């Protein structure tokens, strides 16, 4: 009978991306006889990829010492690098930083000219990027890419290209930055890089595209990440973040039940072992879905738990307070968040919520300031998503200012943009605002049709608060469709009553929050319907009919 060789089985499983099999077979081989340094590194990577982080740390540490014992400084440094990076990603920054410093000392003492020089520049480059010094980060990643090219190191080349792309995006060169992100992804999708590097690049590119509101790329790369995760046996890292992004995409497409399932699966996946910072993102996503469905207590619980995992609760919590009728609390929260947050990735979402909340609070000037900043930010991105957000914000401002006709034009633009992105909830939400504008100008038939269409979408999605608002407006539109005395609409009757008090067109416009031009049109329509030619004759009609 042939003897089974667990080491050979482990190496074979490693090549097939069967990470649990690889770890278990290599562990069995190691118990029979200590593995050589290269196999210890493979066992560490397999352990990391199935979430056995303590085992991975122990194996990388052993690999490091084994390489040193054999006089192999370069691979010893690489083992120390991956151990340090893994610990930092897990939140053990002091311990991880110690291993990275140890690796640097070895390189300095041995004066090696090797690819590891590039790897050890990555943490400082990332620190510069996170600290807002994108120019320094870009210079560092250019040097890292140069080292990668010199030693033909695919993993290091991918990290360098990724970092250059991220830095260019931060510097405002979005088009050039995104092109480099795509280039980094080519190395990943063609299998040129190792699995850990592939996972890091996948997640970083998706977050970067999400940050510039390039939803087409987010969807494309999330689908690719999902396929990649499915091909890795028992993969633990990266899968949770993939599930969160899938949930966000499903939410945008109106697949809310599936989105909730993906967010729940993400939380379950990220809870074992605990400590993954992506958990905050998953909890916030669950909170958003609960809020839109009207499950306010569940939404608040999710937002609070997200904060406990290091993820901000805004703008979701402020919008929840608005939905609960706590307008002052909502305004205070969103103002604080806008004042404290300077990042270009987070700010547009906060500003969009700020416009909505400030208008609800009656602070039109503050809402206009937020919308103007949102417009300036959107000008720097080629993003249909941001264009739709800006059009909705300006339409809402115009409506609040009484410019109902102009509001309709802006809202039509927002509706078309959301529809093109296949975003049914956002499209229906615009239709609610469009219906309000139509009611202001007396176009009750259009208002009724917009509300009916929006209501069907809200009912299908389970968006209870929005559905109730649509039904309330629909009752108003339906009632308004029945003409009053002389065929006058309710708004025309309002205008006539104010005319009877001696109010001027300007005073009527201020009172009803409409434009002077709209008042004049109402008067013209009214004179035609009543068969009169003057304000005095119209007032006489009002007295005769008890108006």
From TrEMBL:
<keyword id="KW-0238">DNA-binding</keyword>
<dbReference type="InterPro" id="IPR016032">
    <property type="entry name" value="Sig_transdc_resp-reg_C-effctor"/>
</dbReference>
<feature type="domain" description="HTH luxR-type">
    <location>
        <begin position="481"/>
        <end position="546"/>
    </location>
</feature>
<dbReference type="InterPro" id="IPR036388">
    <property type="entry name" value="WH-like_DNA-bd_sf"/>
</dbReference>
<dbReference type="InterPro" id="IPR000792">
    <property type="entry name" value="Tscrpt_reg_LuxR_C"/>
</dbReference>
<keyword id="KW-0804">Transcription</keyword>
<dbReference type="GO" id="GO:0003677">
    <property type="term" value="F:DNA binding"/>
</dbReference>
<keyword id="KW-0805">Transcription regulation</keyword>
<dbReference type="InterPro" id="IPR011990">
    <property type="entry name" value="TPR-like_helical_dom_sf"/>
</dbReference>
<dbReference type="Pfam" id="PF00196">
    <property type="entry name" value="GerE"/>
</dbReference>
<protein>
    <submittedName>
        <fullName>DNA-binding response regulator</fullName>
    </submittedName>
</protein>
<dbReference type="InterPro" id="IPR039420">
    <property type="entry name" value="WalR-like"/>
</dbReference>
């Amino acid at each position: 009978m042939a003897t089974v060789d667990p080491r050979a089985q482990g190496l074979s499983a490693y090549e097939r991306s069967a990470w649990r099999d690889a770890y278990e077979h290599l562990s069995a081989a190691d118990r029979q006889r200590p593995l050589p340094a290269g196999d210890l590194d493979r066992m560490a990577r397999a352990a990391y990829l199935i979430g056995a982080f303590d085992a991975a740390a122990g194996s990388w540490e052993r690999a490091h010492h084994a390489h040193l014992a054999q006089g192999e400084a370069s691979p010893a440094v690489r083992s120390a690098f991956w151990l340090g990076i893994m610990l930092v990603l897990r939140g053990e920054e002091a311990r991880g930083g110690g291993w990275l410093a140890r690796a640097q000392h070895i390189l300095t003492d041995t004066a090696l000219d090797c690819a590891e020089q590039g790897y050890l520049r990555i943490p400082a480059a990332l620190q510069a990027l996170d600290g807002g010094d994108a120019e320094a980060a870009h210079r560092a990643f250019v040097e890292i890419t140069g080292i990668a090219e010199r030693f033909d190191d695919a993993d290091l080349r991918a990290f360098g290209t990724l970092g250059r792309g991220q830095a260019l995006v931060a510097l405002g060169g979005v088009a050039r930055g995104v092109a480099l992100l795509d280039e980094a992804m080519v190395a990943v999708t063609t299998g040129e890089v190792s699995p850990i590097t592939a996972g890091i690049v996948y997640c970083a590119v998706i977050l970067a595209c999400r940050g510039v509101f390039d939803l087409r790329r987010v969807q494309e790369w999330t689908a690719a990440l999902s396929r990649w995760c499915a091909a890795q046996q028992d993969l633990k890292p990266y899968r949770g973040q993939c599930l969160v992004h899938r949930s966000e995409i499903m939410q945008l497409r109106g697949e809310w039940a599936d989105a909730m399932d993906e967010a729940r699966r993400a939380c379950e996946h990220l809870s074992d072992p605990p400590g993954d910072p992506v958990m905050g993102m998953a909890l916030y996503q669950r909170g958003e879905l609960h809020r839109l469905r009207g499950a306010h207590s569940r939404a608040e619980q999710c937002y609070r738990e997200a904060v406990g995992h290091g993820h901000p609760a805004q703008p979701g919590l402020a919008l929840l307070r608005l939905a609960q009728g706590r307008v002052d609390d909502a305004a205070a929260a969103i103002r604080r968040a806008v004042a404290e947050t300077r990042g270009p990735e987070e700010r547009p979402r906060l500003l969009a919520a700020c416009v909505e909340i400030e208008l609800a609070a009656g602070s039109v000037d503050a809402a206009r300031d937020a919308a103007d900043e949102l417009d300036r930010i959107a000008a720097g991105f080629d993003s249909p998503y941001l264009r739709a957000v800006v059009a909705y914000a300006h339409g809402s401002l115009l409506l609040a200012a009484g410019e109902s006709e102009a509001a309709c034009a802006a809202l039509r633009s927002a509706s078309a943009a959301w529809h093109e992105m296949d975003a049914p909830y956002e499209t229906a939400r615009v239709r609610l605002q469009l219906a309000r504008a139509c009611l202001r100008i007396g176009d009750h038939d259009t208002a009724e049709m917009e509300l009916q269409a929006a209501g069907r979408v809200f009912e299908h999605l389970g968006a209870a608060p929005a559905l109730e608002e649509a039904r309330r407006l629909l009752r108003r539109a339906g009632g308004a469709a029945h003409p009053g005395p002389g065929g006058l609409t309710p708004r025309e009757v309002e205008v006539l009553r104010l005319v009877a008090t001696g109010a001027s067109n300007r005073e009527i416009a201020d009172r009803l929050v409409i434009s002077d031009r709209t008042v004049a049109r109402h008067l013209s329509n009214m004179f035609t319907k009543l068969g009169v030619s003057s304000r005095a004759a119209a007032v006489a009609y009002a007295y005769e009919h008890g108006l």
